[in-house]
Amino acid sequence: MSGIGEGFRDNGRLQGFLRQHPSERKGLKDLTEDQKDDVQHVAAVLPNWDVDVQVYVDGEQIIFEGSVITLKVQVGRCAPTTD
């Protein structure tokens, strides 16, 4: 049995959930009001980032073994959703 989080990939579903307006978040119908409040509180404080990554070789279309690459990473924090 694998550990919690081992090999975890959400394919953007968590980010999508965080970016929804709290009233539009699905999957909470079977929770108590206290549990729903907990989920909304955690969603409000989790980091919500946009990350854009580009890897390239200046002046080349193809990356070959031994090529010197440029890695460009842009990180931005998204505005939190509000009630």
List the SSEs and their pairings.
Elements: H1 13-19, H2 33-45, E1 49-56, E2 70-77
Antiparallel strand pairs: 1-2
Which structural traits does this protein have?
two-stranded antiparallel ribbon; single chain; alpha+beta; 83 residues
Strand order of the largest sheet: 1-2
Alpha-carbon Rg, integer: 19 Å
Please state the overall shape, judged from the principal axes of the Cα atoms. elongated
Number of DSSP helical runs: 2
Order of helices and strands: HHEE
Helix content: 10-25%
Short description:
The protein has 83 residues and is an alpha+beta fold. It is built from two helices and two strands; from the N terminus they run ααββ. The model is unreliable at 1-8 (pLDDT under 50).
Explain this structure.
By secondary structure, the protein is an alpha+beta fold. The protein has one domain (13-77). The protein is 24% helix and 19% strand. The protein has a two-stranded antiparallel ribbon. The radius of gyration is 19 Å and the shape is elongated.
